[in-house]
Amino acid sequence: MGGKPDPLCRDLLQTLMLYFRWPKGTIAFWPATELRAENVVPRPDMFWQGVTMLGATQLALFGRDVCTLLLPDAPEGRTPIKFSTGLVHVCPSLARLRGMLPHERLLALQALKDLPF
What we know:
By secondary structure, this protein is of the alpha+beta class. 41% of the residues lie in helices and 19% in strands. The chain has six helices and five strands. The strands form two sheets. A three-stranded mixed beta sheet has the order 3-5-4. Strands 1-2 form a two-stranded antiparallel sheet.
């Protein structure tokens, strides 16, 4: 989530938040990149500082590339993945989710919807 805002991505995220129906305050978006001049630069350190500040225990990463950036030693194809204070759920990328039919999207994210709050 860096660079130029994408209205299609925004609309997809709003749809997902409505689908999850989680309590207010349970969803936060935290960057893993930084915009420097015109370049998007990876900043995993900034992401993990945010996780610590927020006290997050359940993380959803959208896309295997994001998981590789933030958890380079994580086994591929396994989810959830343990991190120091909780679990990481690796989801399809937002681009992939956007291309899915609505019922496919719901199936792909069912494990997140089932998280207890």
